# Entry
Amino acid sequence: AQRVTQPEKLLSVFKGAPVELKCNYSYSGSPELFWYVQYSRQRLQLLLRHISRESIKGFTADLNKGETSFHLKKPFAQEEDSAMYYCALTRREYGNKLVFGAGTILRVKS
Amino acid sequence: DTGVSQNPRHKITKRGQNVTFRCDPISEHNRLYWYRQTLGQGPEFLTYFQNEAQLEKSRLLSDRFSAERPKGSFSTLEIQRTEQGDSAMYLCASSLGAGGSSYEQYFGPGTRLTVT
# Structure
């Protein structure tokens, strides 16, 4: 079965500190992996996807197929990064429906 | 186009009543998805449409749930004989079909259902 695990419910860091939000997945094929973000009182929005290999708002994520991980990283956290972050996977053959993890709240303290 | 919209934003109903939610996707998007999110969990897939055709339904979608997208534009999700366990945030998302940025789903603000 497809599963996405985000082991941390809450990650609290100081401004300027590095951030790593963990995501592990279980899937038999070759999924597409995403990070979605939800800022306070805003809707869920795409942050980045592994196929584009781009950096958005200073965040990067590398797909590690050997470890089945897709951790989200940022070298220097900013207060405006405080939000709920969801890791998700999909496959085009399955209609692109998204399977989400439970989410991690990132709190950046000043 | 202001993105995906959902109505109502909040719904409080008594157990046993029927409720209907509406989703208006981004106009050129031919795929429309429904998800449900309960407290402390990520969104869970319920069903999706390619134009007016409902292509998949999750096992989460009991017989009390029905979704339609009659003209391939807006969609409705109806819950009959609501139960307290139906209390959740119901999210709608839309995307283009195959090709292009087909994977990016744009989410609506959600409808929060409370069953008392």
